[in-house]
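Box S1 | Example of a co-folding query
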Amino acid sequence: MCGFVGMISKTDVSGEIHLALQAIQHRGQDSAGIATMSADGRQFFLRHGLGTVAQVLLQKDLDILKGPGGVGHVRYPTIGQGTLEDAQPFFYRQPGVLMAHNGNVTNYRELQDSLASRSIHLLSHCDVEPALCEFADALMAARPANHTLEDAIDALRKIHQRVKGSYSVVTTLMLDGIPTLVVLRDPNGIRPAIVGQRHDGAWLAASESVALDVLDFEHSFTPNQGEAVFLRAGQAPIRHQLESGCSAPCIFEHIYFARPDSIIDGKTVYEQRMGYGRALGERIRAKGIVADVVVPVPDTARPAAAAMAEELSLPLREGFIKNRYSGRTFIMPDQITRNAALRLKLNTLPSEVRNRNVLLVDDSIVRGTTLRRVINLLRNAGAKSVHLAIHSPPVRNPCYYGIDMSTREELFAAQFDGPIDAVEPKAAEALGADSMTYLPVEALDEVFGSPRCGACFDKNYPQPLSESMQHDIAADRRSARDNESA
Ligand code: SF4
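Box S1 (continued) | Returned holo structure for iron/sulfur cluster
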Protein backbone atom coordinates (compact mmCIF):
# COMPACT_ATOMS: atom_id res chain seq x y z
CA MET A 1 0.00 0.00 0.00
CA CYS A 2 1.23 3.48 -0.80
CA GLY A 3 0.12 7.07 -1.02
CA PHE A 4 0.71 9.71 -3.67
CA VAL A 5 0.43 13.44 -4.11
CA GLY A 6 0.63 15.44 -7.36
CA MET A 7 0.56 19.22 -7.56
CA ILE A 8 0.61 21.85 -10.29
CA SER A 9 0.87 25.53 -9.45
CA LYS A 10 2.43 28.82 -10.52
CA THR A 11 5.13 28.65 -7.85
CA ASP A 12 7.44 25.94 -6.46
CA VAL A 13 5.48 22.99 -5.14
CA SER A 14 7.97 20.82 -3.21
CA GLY A 15 7.31 22.40 0.23
CA GLU A 16 3.57 21.86 -0.11
CA ILE A 17 3.96 18.32 -1.46
CA HIS A 18 6.14 17.64 1.62
CA LEU A 19 3.29 18.73 3.91
CA ALA A 20 0.66 16.81 1.95
CA LEU A 21 2.78 13.66 2.10
CA GLN A 22 2.98 13.93 5.88
CA ALA A 23 -0.84 13.96 5.99
CA ILE A 24 -0.87 10.55 4.27
CA GLN A 25 2.18 9.13 6.04
CA HIS A 26 -0.01 6.32 7.46
CA ARG A 27 -0.15 4.87 3.91
CA GLY A 28 3.54 3.93 4.03
CA GLN A 29 6.63 4.56 6.11
CA ASP A 30 9.12 2.50 4.16
CA SER A 31 10.25 5.14 1.68
CA ALA A 32 9.38 8.69 0.68
CA GLY A 33 10.19 10.86 -2.29
CA ILE A 34 9.39 14.01 -4.24
CA ALA A 35 10.18 14.82 -7.87
CA THR A 36 9.58 18.14 -9.60
CA MET A 37 9.72 19.63 -13.09
CA SER A 38 10.88 23.14 -14.01
CA ALA A 39 8.41 25.58 -15.60
CA ASP A 40 9.93 25.09 -19.07
CA GLY A 41 10.01 21.30 -18.71
CA ARG A 42 13.75 21.13 -19.34
CA GLN A 43 14.89 20.14 -15.87
CA PHE A 44 13.74 17.50 -13.44
CA PHE A 45 14.71 17.06 -9.80
CA LEU A 46 14.32 13.94 -7.70
CA ARG A 47 14.95 13.16 -4.05
CA HIS A 48 13.89 9.92 -2.42
CA GLY A 49 15.11 7.56 0.28
CA LEU A 50 14.18 4.88 2.78
CA GLY A 51 12.21 6.11 5.78
CA THR A 52 9.42 8.55 6.59
CA VAL A 53 8.88 11.93 4.92
CA ALA A 54 10.48 13.81 7.81
CA GLN A 55 13.47 11.47 7.87
CA VAL A 56 14.11 11.41 4.11
CA LEU A 57 13.22 14.86 2.79
CA LEU A 58 15.07 17.67 4.53
CA GLN A 59 15.03 21.42 3.90
CA LYS A 60 18.19 21.14 1.77
CA ASP A 61 16.33 18.67 -0.47
CA LEU A 62 13.33 20.97 -0.82
CA ASP A 63 15.71 23.81 -1.77
CA ILE A 64 16.88 21.72 -4.70
CA LEU A 65 13.42 20.47 -5.72
CA LYS A 66 12.47 23.50 -7.82
CA GLY A 67 9.52 23.80 -10.16
CA PRO A 68 5.77 24.46 -10.32
CA GLY A 69 4.79 20.84 -10.96
CA GLY A 70 5.66 17.62 -9.22
CA VAL A 71 4.67 14.39 -7.57
CA GLY A 72 5.39 12.82 -4.20
CA HIS A 73 5.09 9.36 -2.75
CA VAL A 74 5.12 7.35 0.48
CA ARG A 75 5.60 3.63 0.19
CA TYR A 76 4.72 0.47 2.01
CA PRO A 77 6.21 -2.45 0.08
CA THR A 78 3.77 -5.21 -0.81
CA ILE A 79 5.70 -6.18 -3.94
CA GLY A 80 9.36 -5.66 -4.72
CA GLN A 81 12.37 -5.66 -2.50
CA GLY A 82 11.67 -2.39 -0.71
CA THR A 83 15.15 -1.12 -1.53
CA LEU A 84 16.09 2.40 -2.62
CA GLU A 85 15.75 1.38 -6.30
CA ASP A 86 12.05 0.75 -5.64
CA ALA A 87 11.43 4.10 -3.94
CA GLN A 88 9.09 6.31 -5.95
CA PRO A 89 8.59 8.71 -7.71
CA PHE A 90 10.09 7.44 -10.97
CA PHE A 91 11.51 9.56 -13.74
CA TYR A 92 11.85 8.69 -17.43
CA ARG A 93 14.27 10.79 -19.47
CA GLN A 94 12.48 10.59 -22.78
CA PRO A 95 10.18 12.46 -23.12
CA GLY A 96 10.73 13.75 -19.55
CA VAL A 97 7.97 12.43 -17.30
CA LEU A 98 7.53 11.87 -13.56
CA MET A 99 5.22 9.25 -12.09
CA ALA A 100 4.02 7.95 -8.73
CA HIS A 101 1.28 5.46 -8.02
CA ASN A 102 -0.70 3.48 -5.50
CA GLY A 103 -1.85 -0.02 -6.32
CA ASN A 104 -0.53 -3.28 -7.60
CA VAL A 105 0.15 -4.13 -11.23
CA THR A 106 -0.84 -7.79 -11.51
CA ASN A 107 0.82 -8.52 -14.87
CA TYR A 108 4.19 -7.04 -13.87
CA ARG A 109 6.23 -9.99 -15.19
CA GLU A 110 4.37 -10.09 -18.50
CA LEU A 111 5.02 -6.36 -18.93
CA GLN A 112 8.66 -6.80 -18.00
CA ASP A 113 9.03 -9.45 -20.78
CA SER A 114 7.16 -7.31 -23.29
CA LEU A 115 9.33 -4.26 -22.52
CA ALA A 116 12.53 -6.34 -22.72
CA SER A 117 11.50 -7.53 -26.18
CA ARG A 118 11.54 -3.83 -27.18
CA SER A 119 14.94 -3.33 -25.49
CA ILE A 120 13.38 -1.33 -22.66
CA HIS A 121 14.90 -2.48 -19.39
CA LEU A 122 13.76 -1.84 -15.85
CA LEU A 123 15.90 -0.46 -13.03
CA SER A 124 13.69 -1.61 -10.15
CA HIS A 125 11.21 -4.24 -8.96
CA CYS A 126 8.58 -1.58 -8.48
CA ASP A 127 5.40 -2.25 -10.40
CA VAL A 128 4.87 1.38 -11.46
CA GLU A 129 8.04 1.36 -13.54
CA PRO A 130 6.60 -0.78 -16.38
CA ALA A 131 3.53 1.48 -16.49
CA LEU A 132 5.78 4.53 -16.77
CA CYS A 133 7.86 2.84 -19.49
CA GLU A 134 4.74 1.92 -21.46
CA PHE A 135 3.47 5.48 -21.18
CA ALA A 136 6.79 7.02 -22.22
CA ASP A 137 7.22 4.51 -25.06
CA ALA A 138 3.75 5.26 -26.42
CA LEU A 139 4.42 9.02 -26.25
CA MET A 140 7.75 8.68 -28.07
CA ALA A 141 6.08 6.51 -30.71
CA ALA A 142 3.62 9.36 -31.35
CA ARG A 143 6.35 11.98 -31.87
CA PRO A 144 9.87 12.62 -30.53
CA ALA A 145 9.14 15.97 -28.81
CA ASN A 146 6.51 18.66 -28.19
CA HIS A 147 3.85 16.19 -27.07
CA THR A 148 0.22 17.17 -27.09
CA LEU A 149 -2.78 16.38 -24.94
CA GLU A 150 -4.03 14.01 -27.66
CA ASP A 151 -0.69 12.15 -27.62
CA ALA A 152 -1.06 11.68 -23.86
CA ILE A 153 -4.66 10.48 -24.14
CA ASP A 154 -3.61 7.82 -26.68
CA ALA A 155 -0.65 6.81 -24.49
CA LEU A 156 -2.86 6.52 -21.39
CA ARG A 157 -5.28 4.35 -23.36
CA LYS A 158 -2.34 2.01 -23.95
CA ILE A 159 -1.71 1.87 -20.20
CA HIS A 160 -5.31 0.78 -19.71
CA GLN A 161 -4.96 -1.85 -22.45
CA ARG A 162 -1.64 -3.26 -21.28
CA VAL A 163 -1.38 -2.69 -17.54
CA LYS A 164 -3.64 -4.91 -15.39
CA GLY A 165 -4.45 -4.59 -11.71
CA SER A 166 -5.16 -1.64 -9.48
CA TYR A 167 -3.51 1.71 -10.03
CA SER A 168 -4.18 5.31 -9.25
CA VAL A 169 -1.40 7.27 -10.90
CA VAL A 170 -0.16 10.85 -10.94
CA THR A 171 2.28 12.04 -13.56
CA THR A 172 3.83 15.38 -14.43
CA LEU A 173 5.04 16.35 -17.91
CA MET A 174 4.85 19.08 -20.55
CA LEU A 175 1.85 18.82 -22.87
CA ASP A 176 1.15 21.48 -25.51
CA GLY A 177 4.13 23.35 -23.98
CA ILE A 178 2.31 23.68 -20.61
CA PRO A 179 3.27 22.00 -17.31
CA THR A 180 0.51 19.43 -16.80
CA LEU A 181 -0.46 17.12 -13.97
CA VAL A 182 -2.24 13.96 -15.09
CA VAL A 183 -4.30 11.70 -12.83
CA LEU A 184 -5.30 8.24 -14.04
CA ARG A 185 -7.45 5.63 -12.32
CA ASP A 186 -7.61 1.98 -13.30
CA PRO A 187 -10.77 0.79 -15.11
CA ASN A 188 -12.34 -0.38 -11.82
CA GLY A 189 -11.17 2.54 -9.65
CA ILE A 190 -9.88 0.11 -7.04
CA ARG A 191 -7.43 2.47 -5.36
CA PRO A 192 -8.58 5.91 -4.24
CA ALA A 193 -7.83 9.31 -5.75
CA ILE A 194 -9.22 12.80 -5.22
CA VAL A 195 -8.61 16.17 -6.88
CA GLY A 196 -8.76 19.58 -5.24
CA GLN A 197 -8.44 23.18 -6.36
CA ARG A 198 -7.29 26.29 -4.49
CA HIS A 199 -8.16 29.98 -4.93
CA ASP A 200 -4.66 30.68 -6.39
CA GLY A 201 -5.33 28.35 -9.33
CA ALA A 202 -3.23 25.45 -8.01
CA TRP A 203 -4.44 21.85 -8.34
CA LEU A 204 -3.64 18.97 -6.04
CA ALA A 205 -4.36 15.26 -6.53
CA ALA A 206 -3.83 12.75 -3.75
CA SER A 207 -4.70 9.30 -2.46
CA GLU A 208 -6.77 10.76 0.37
CA SER A 209 -8.62 14.01 0.96
CA VAL A 210 -6.69 14.76 4.17
CA ALA A 211 -3.76 15.77 1.94
CA LEU A 212 -6.01 18.44 0.38
CA ASP A 213 -7.31 19.65 3.75
CA VAL A 214 -3.87 20.37 5.14
CA LEU A 215 -3.14 22.78 2.26
CA ASP A 216 -6.59 24.39 2.15
CA PHE A 217 -7.64 22.87 -1.15
CA GLU A 218 -11.35 22.45 -1.85
CA HIS A 219 -12.45 18.91 -2.61
CA SER A 220 -13.31 19.41 -6.31
CA PHE A 221 -14.03 15.90 -7.59
CA THR A 222 -13.17 12.23 -7.48
CA PRO A 223 -11.83 10.91 -10.78
CA ASN A 224 -14.04 8.09 -12.10
CA GLN A 225 -12.81 4.59 -12.70
CA GLY A 226 -11.03 4.48 -16.07
CA GLU A 227 -10.80 8.26 -16.24
CA ALA A 228 -7.79 10.46 -17.07
CA VAL A 229 -7.76 14.02 -15.74
CA PHE A 230 -5.44 16.78 -17.01
CA LEU A 231 -4.74 19.68 -14.66
CA ARG A 232 -3.00 22.96 -15.40
CA ALA A 233 -2.49 25.89 -13.04
CA GLY A 234 -5.28 28.46 -13.36
CA GLN A 235 -7.21 26.43 -15.93
CA ALA A 236 -10.33 24.25 -15.79
CA PRO A 237 -9.69 20.49 -15.55
CA ILE A 238 -9.83 18.46 -18.75
CA ARG A 239 -11.49 15.09 -18.09
CA HIS A 240 -11.42 12.11 -20.45
CA GLN A 241 -13.28 8.89 -19.80
CA LEU A 242 -10.93 6.36 -21.40
CA GLU A 243 -12.68 3.19 -20.28
CA SER A 244 -15.91 2.44 -18.51
CA GLY A 245 -15.37 -0.61 -16.28
CA CYS A 246 -17.47 -1.42 -13.21
CA SER A 247 -16.67 0.69 -10.20
CA ALA A 248 -15.03 -1.49 -7.53
CA PRO A 249 -13.27 0.68 -4.92
CA CYS A 250 -11.41 -1.20 -2.20
CA ILE A 251 -13.72 -1.47 0.81
CA PHE A 252 -10.74 -2.25 3.03
CA GLU A 253 -9.71 1.42 2.74
CA HIS A 254 -12.91 2.26 4.63
CA ILE A 255 -12.61 -0.57 7.13
CA TYR A 256 -8.99 -0.16 8.08
CA PHE A 257 -6.52 1.58 5.88
CA ALA A 258 -7.57 5.18 5.29
CA ARG A 259 -7.58 7.95 7.87
CA PRO A 260 -11.03 8.32 9.49
CA ASP A 261 -11.17 12.01 8.53
CA SER A 262 -10.72 11.21 4.83
CA ILE A 263 -13.48 11.23 2.25
CA ILE A 264 -13.05 8.45 -0.28
CA ASP A 265 -15.29 8.08 -3.33
CA GLY A 266 -17.73 10.49 -1.70
CA LYS A 267 -17.98 8.59 1.61
CA THR A 268 -16.59 9.81 4.94
CA VAL A 269 -14.47 7.01 6.37
CA TYR A 270 -15.42 7.90 9.97
CA GLU A 271 -19.15 7.65 9.20
CA GLN A 272 -18.60 4.36 7.40
CA ARG A 273 -16.87 2.89 10.44
CA MET A 274 -19.67 4.14 12.71
CA GLY A 275 -22.15 2.40 10.41
CA TYR A 276 -20.24 -0.88 10.61
CA GLY A 277 -20.18 -0.57 14.42
CA ARG A 278 -23.95 0.00 14.62
CA ALA A 279 -24.65 -2.99 12.36
CA LEU A 280 -22.29 -5.16 14.40
CA GLY A 281 -24.00 -4.02 17.61
CA GLU A 282 -27.33 -5.26 16.24
CA ARG A 283 -25.79 -8.68 15.59
CA ILE A 284 -24.22 -8.82 19.07
CA ARG A 285 -27.63 -8.08 20.57
CA ALA A 286 -29.32 -10.72 18.39
CA LYS A 287 -26.76 -13.29 19.54
CA GLY A 288 -27.51 -12.47 23.18
CA ILE A 289 -23.90 -11.68 24.11
CA VAL A 290 -23.71 -10.05 27.55
CA ALA A 291 -20.98 -7.46 28.19
CA ASP A 292 -20.30 -4.68 30.72
CA VAL A 293 -18.01 -2.48 28.67
CA VAL A 294 -16.97 -1.84 25.04
CA VAL A 295 -13.21 -1.55 24.46
CA PRO A 296 -11.67 -0.69 21.06
CA VAL A 297 -8.29 -1.92 19.87
CA PRO A 298 -6.71 1.47 19.15
CA ASP A 299 -6.83 3.35 16.87
CA THR A 300 -8.82 2.19 13.84
CA ALA A 301 -11.63 0.47 15.74
CA ARG A 302 -12.59 3.56 17.80
CA PRO A 303 -15.43 4.93 15.60
CA ALA A 304 -17.08 1.50 15.28
CA ALA A 305 -16.68 0.83 19.02
CA ALA A 306 -18.29 4.19 19.87
CA ALA A 307 -21.27 3.47 17.61
CA MET A 308 -21.59 -0.07 18.98
CA ALA A 309 -21.53 1.17 22.58
CA GLU A 310 -24.34 3.61 21.70
CA GLU A 311 -26.32 0.89 19.98
CA LEU A 312 -26.00 -1.46 22.97
CA SER A 313 -26.27 1.27 25.65
CA LEU A 314 -22.95 0.17 27.14
CA PRO A 315 -20.09 2.35 28.42
CA LEU A 316 -17.16 2.85 26.03
CA ARG A 317 -13.77 2.64 27.72
CA GLU A 318 -10.15 2.79 26.69
CA GLY A 319 -8.81 -0.59 27.76
CA PHE A 320 -5.49 0.06 26.04
CA ILE A 321 -3.17 3.01 25.67
CA LYS A 322 -1.14 3.10 22.48
CA ASN A 323 2.44 4.30 22.57
CA ARG A 324 2.80 6.60 19.55
CA TYR A 325 6.54 6.69 19.79
CA SER A 326 7.47 3.02 19.79
CA GLY A 327 9.53 2.09 16.76
CA ARG A 328 9.53 -1.05 14.74
CA THR A 329 9.95 -4.23 16.79
CA PHE A 330 11.96 -7.01 15.24
CA ILE A 331 11.53 -10.75 15.49
CA MET A 332 11.70 -11.68 19.15
CA PRO A 333 13.29 -14.94 20.20
CA ASP A 334 11.14 -15.75 23.22
CA GLN A 335 7.69 -15.19 24.65
CA ILE A 336 8.79 -12.69 27.33
CA THR A 337 10.37 -10.27 24.88
CA ARG A 338 7.53 -10.77 22.35
CA ASN A 339 5.04 -9.71 25.02
CA ALA A 340 7.29 -6.80 25.99
CA ALA A 341 7.31 -5.69 22.34
CA LEU A 342 3.51 -5.70 22.24
CA ARG A 343 3.16 -3.89 25.58
CA LEU A 344 5.61 -1.30 24.41
CA LYS A 345 3.05 -0.49 21.71
CA LEU A 346 -0.14 -1.26 23.62
CA ASN A 347 -0.48 -1.28 27.39
CA THR A 348 -3.64 -2.19 29.32
CA LEU A 349 -5.64 -0.03 31.71
CA PRO A 350 -6.63 -2.69 34.30
CA SER A 351 -8.99 -0.30 36.13
CA GLU A 352 -11.28 -0.26 33.06
CA VAL A 353 -11.48 -4.00 32.45
CA ARG A 354 -10.93 -5.75 35.80
CA ASN A 355 -13.88 -8.00 36.79
CA ARG A 356 -15.79 -6.92 33.70
CA ASN A 357 -17.16 -8.75 30.69
CA VAL A 358 -15.34 -6.97 27.87
CA LEU A 359 -16.63 -6.51 24.33
CA LEU A 360 -13.37 -6.03 22.45
CA VAL A 361 -13.78 -4.33 19.04
CA ASP A 362 -11.30 -4.51 16.18
CA ASP A 363 -11.58 -3.60 12.50
CA SER A 364 -10.49 -6.88 10.90
CA ILE A 365 -8.42 -10.00 11.38
CA VAL A 366 -5.74 -10.63 8.79
CA ARG A 367 -3.11 -12.78 10.50
CA GLY A 368 -4.56 -12.88 14.03
CA THR A 369 -1.23 -12.97 15.81
CA THR A 370 -1.49 -9.59 17.55
CA LEU A 371 -5.14 -10.06 18.47
CA ARG A 372 -4.39 -13.33 20.25
CA ARG A 373 -1.90 -11.47 22.44
CA VAL A 374 -4.25 -8.52 22.95
CA ILE A 375 -6.92 -10.88 24.31
CA ASN A 376 -4.30 -12.37 26.61
CA LEU A 377 -3.37 -8.91 27.88
CA LEU A 378 -7.02 -8.28 28.80
CA ARG A 379 -7.26 -11.55 30.69
CA ASN A 380 -4.03 -10.79 32.56
CA ALA A 381 -5.50 -7.39 33.46
CA GLY A 382 -8.43 -9.16 35.17
CA ALA A 383 -11.19 -9.19 32.52
CA LYS A 384 -13.93 -11.66 33.50
CA SER A 385 -14.59 -12.58 29.87
CA VAL A 386 -13.51 -11.28 26.45
CA HIS A 387 -16.03 -11.23 23.60
CA LEU A 388 -14.49 -10.27 20.31
CA ALA A 389 -16.40 -8.14 17.76
CA ILE A 390 -14.88 -7.57 14.31
CA HIS A 391 -16.43 -4.88 12.11
CA SER A 392 -15.74 -6.72 8.85
CA PRO A 393 -16.30 -10.25 7.49
CA PRO A 394 -13.68 -13.05 7.69
CA VAL A 395 -10.68 -12.33 5.42
CA ARG A 396 -10.25 -15.63 3.60
CA ASN A 397 -8.82 -14.64 0.20
CA PRO A 398 -5.58 -12.90 -0.70
CA CYS A 399 -5.55 -9.33 -2.00
CA TYR A 400 -3.82 -8.86 -5.35
CA TYR A 401 -4.55 -5.15 -5.54
CA GLY A 402 -2.08 -3.60 -3.17
CA ILE A 403 -3.08 -4.37 0.43
CA ASP A 404 -0.50 -6.38 2.32
CA MET A 405 -2.22 -9.77 2.43
CA SER A 406 -1.32 -11.52 -0.78
CA THR A 407 -0.69 -15.07 0.39
CA ARG A 408 -3.49 -17.38 1.52
CA GLU A 409 -1.40 -19.16 4.12
CA GLU A 410 -0.95 -15.95 6.15
CA LEU A 411 -4.71 -15.35 6.52
CA PHE A 412 -6.16 -16.38 9.88
CA ALA A 413 -9.71 -17.09 8.67
CA ALA A 414 -8.59 -19.10 5.62
CA GLN A 415 -8.28 -22.16 7.88
CA PHE A 416 -12.04 -22.17 8.58
CA ASP A 417 -14.60 -23.31 6.01
CA GLY A 418 -18.32 -22.75 6.04
CA PRO A 419 -20.72 -19.91 6.76
CA ILE A 420 -19.93 -17.15 9.23
CA ASP A 421 -21.95 -18.79 12.08
CA ALA A 422 -19.81 -21.90 11.79
CA VAL A 423 -16.55 -19.94 11.58
CA GLU A 424 -17.11 -17.77 14.66
CA PRO A 425 -16.86 -20.42 17.44
CA LYS A 426 -13.75 -21.96 15.85
CA ALA A 427 -12.14 -18.55 15.41
CA ALA A 428 -12.97 -17.61 19.03
CA GLU A 429 -11.34 -20.77 20.29
CA ALA A 430 -8.24 -20.26 18.12
CA LEU A 431 -7.82 -16.72 19.49
CA GLY A 432 -8.65 -17.54 23.10
CA ALA A 433 -11.83 -15.39 23.18
CA ASP A 434 -15.08 -16.35 24.91
CA SER A 435 -17.05 -15.57 21.76
CA MET A 436 -16.48 -13.93 18.43
CA THR A 437 -18.79 -11.99 16.13
CA TYR A 438 -17.95 -10.90 12.59
CA LEU A 439 -19.90 -8.42 10.48
CA PRO A 440 -21.48 -10.41 7.61
CA VAL A 441 -20.84 -9.32 4.00
CA GLU A 442 -24.54 -8.44 3.52
CA ALA A 443 -24.48 -6.05 6.50
CA LEU A 444 -21.22 -4.52 5.29
CA ASP A 445 -22.76 -3.92 1.86
CA GLU A 446 -25.87 -2.38 3.34
CA VAL A 447 -23.74 0.21 5.15
CA PHE A 448 -21.39 0.82 2.18
CA GLY A 449 -24.34 1.26 -0.18
CA SER A 450 -22.60 1.02 -3.57
CA PRO A 451 -20.52 -1.42 -5.65
CA ARG A 452 -17.11 -2.24 -4.20
CA CYS A 453 -14.23 -4.67 -4.27
CA GLY A 454 -14.45 -7.00 -1.30
CA ALA A 455 -12.67 -9.93 -2.90
CA CYS A 456 -10.70 -10.67 0.27
CA PHE A 457 -14.09 -11.48 1.83
CA ASP A 458 -16.14 -12.92 -1.03
CA LYS A 459 -13.56 -13.89 -3.70
CA ASN A 460 -15.26 -11.71 -6.35
CA TYR A 461 -12.14 -10.18 -7.87
CA PRO A 462 -13.10 -7.27 -10.13
CA GLN A 463 -10.51 -8.31 -12.71
CA PRO A 464 -9.76 -11.86 -13.85
CA LEU A 465 -6.46 -13.16 -12.50
CA SER A 466 -4.68 -16.15 -14.00
CA GLU A 467 -3.17 -18.82 -11.73
CA SER A 468 0.30 -17.72 -12.81
CA MET A 469 -0.41 -14.08 -11.90
CA GLN A 470 -1.63 -15.15 -8.46
CA HIS A 471 1.43 -17.31 -8.02
CA ASP A 472 3.82 -14.53 -9.12
CA ILE A 473 2.25 -11.96 -6.80
CA ALA A 474 2.34 -14.33 -3.82
CA ALA A 475 6.00 -15.16 -4.57
CA ASP A 476 6.88 -11.47 -4.82
CA ARG A 477 5.09 -10.81 -1.53
CA ARG A 478 6.97 -13.60 0.24
CA SER A 479 10.22 -12.20 -1.04
CA ALA A 480 9.29 -8.67 0.14
CA ARG A 481 8.38 -10.05 3.56
CA ASP A 482 11.62 -12.04 3.82
CA ASN A 483 13.48 -8.89 2.94
CA GLU A 484 11.63 -6.90 5.64
CA SER A 485 12.55 -9.40 8.34
CA ALA A 486 16.12 -10.00 7.12
FE1 SF4 B 1 -9.32 -4.14 -0.97
FE2 SF4 B 1 -9.83 -6.67 -0.30
FE3 SF4 B 1 -10.28 -5.81 -2.79
FE4 SF4 B 1 -7.79 -6.06 -1.86
S1 SF4 B 1 -9.26 -7.70 -2.20
S2 SF4 B 1 -8.62 -4.35 -3.07
S3 SF4 B 1 -8.05 -5.46 0.28
S4 SF4 B 1 -11.31 -5.12 -0.90
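The chain has a mean pLDDT of 93. The first helix runs from residue 14 to 23.
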